[in-house]
Write a structure and sequence with these properties.
Radius of gyration: 23 Å
Strand order of the largest sheet: 4-3-2-1-5
Strand content: 15-25%
Order of helices and strands: HEEEEHEHEHHHEEH
Helix content: 25-40%
Shape: elongated
Distance between the termini: 58 Å
Number of strands: 8
């Protein structure tokens, strides 16, 4: 069984030494160090080692991250939940403030009607447009060839989530985390301008 599995893994190019793989069933998340007929040795990111039967790569759910590196795009899929009590129709003064913000100039040219009080645009809608414009100006984000999406998800008891679903063009772990952190720190910091507030549970003792 090990020999047959080893041949299948090799000819189908399912795994290689150096691949980052995740096997939830074995609580394993790390880089492949060795592939033999009977076992695959994986160094986890906490510097422990896990030895997994070679056959497991055909019989259990395995996530191989190699295509991500080959394609050059790493996914950001994260949401900010907003307090629904802070969502409102913008008045003209608020729209005038928003239209002068950085990253909004192109939208003002393309959809000037949005910035008229007659449009009855909400601060949530304007924030969603801002997030899109902000990400389109970010040199670390793919604009073509990868999904680029900013959307409002279904309301929940914990607010209404605004989800960012984009791909960074830097797949390195440290750089990816820095790019992701910069984006969401900025978005959280800009919420008061839109008179929005992130939902936060209040724990009472």
């Amino acid at each position: 069984l090990g020999l047959i599995t080893s041949l299948q893994l090799t000819f189908q190019n399912i795994i290689q030494v150096g691949d980052w793989v995740t096997l939830p069933q074995y609580n394993t998340d790390g880089d492949i160090q060795k592939i033999t007929i009977s076992v695959v040795v994986i160094r986890n990111f906490d510097n422990t080692y896990t030895t997994v039967p070679t056959s497991a790569f055909l019989t259990t759910g395995v996530k191989n991250w190699r295509p991500m590196f080959e394609l050059g795009g790493r996914r950001i899929k994260r949401a900010i939940s907003l307090d629904m009590d802070t969502i409102k129709i913008c008045d003209q003064n608020e729209l005038d403030i928003i239209k002068k913000m950085s990253y909004m100039s192109r939208l003002v040219k393309e959809k000037s009607q949005l910035f008229s009080a007659e449009s009855q645009a909400t601060n949530l809608s304007m924030f969603r447009h801002y997030v899109t414009q902000y990400l389109e100006s970010n040199q670390n984000i793919h604009k073509e060839g990868f999904t680029f999406l900013v959307r409002a998800l279904d309301p929940t008891p914990n607010g209404i989530p605004i989800e960012v679903y984009v791909f960074t063009n830097d797949t390195g772990w440290v750089n990816y985390e820095e790019i992701q952190a910069d984006i969401f720190e900025h978005l959280l910091g800009i919420l008061p301008i839109f008179k929005l507030r992130a939902f936060q549970s209040i724990l009472r003792s």
